[in-house]
Design brief:
single chain; about 140 residues; 4 strands; about 20% helix; globular
């Protein structure tokens, strides 16, 4: 998944300067974090995800909880309804996280998203510096 390919048109329309997207703002509850596109793409493409139900179809976005960022999946209608989760697209949950909402990757440009998460250990070590800090706030994009 190439995040820039999905979000660049929205960025160009919003900013009209044709600059490359460097960061993506992910909001969780009342908090937000600015994540480098490199980190987002690494998380989405990571094969190291434990205990994901067999009913998953594909990775549709990323999620976070506290300082943890992970991919999340589109699950089947059955998997979704059995757990009683809140969601925006059916079954965007990981490991039965309670009361979580999510948004698909192609809609990350929208505002006010609450996302779910897995384990910090899944983040490549060389990218963990960004977790818990807004390292890109002066050069990246906020609110895309």
């Amino acid at each position: 998944m190439e995040i820039n390919e999905q979000l660049q048109p929205a960025a160009d329309e919003k900013y009209e300067d044709n600059q490359e997207i460097l960061c993506i703002e992910i909001r969780s509850g009342g908090r937000s974090s600015l994540l480098p596109v490199e980190l987002v793409e690494a998380v989405i493409s990571s094969p190291v995800v434990a205990d994901i139900p067999e009913s998953r179809e594909e990775i549709i976005g990323i999620g976070m909880y506290g300082r943890c960022v992970v991919p999340y999946y589109q699950l089947s209608d059955e998997a979704c309804s059995n757990k009683g989760q809140r969601d925006i697209r059916c079954g965007v949950i990981l490991r039965g996280q309670q009361g979580c909402a999510g948004i698909a990757a192609d809609e990350i440009s929208e505002e006010k998203k609450v996302l779910t998460c897995e384990y910090e250990e899944q983040i490549p070590e060389h990218l963990r510096w960004i977790l818990g800090g807004n390292k890109c706030d002066k050069t990246g994009r906020q609110g895309i």
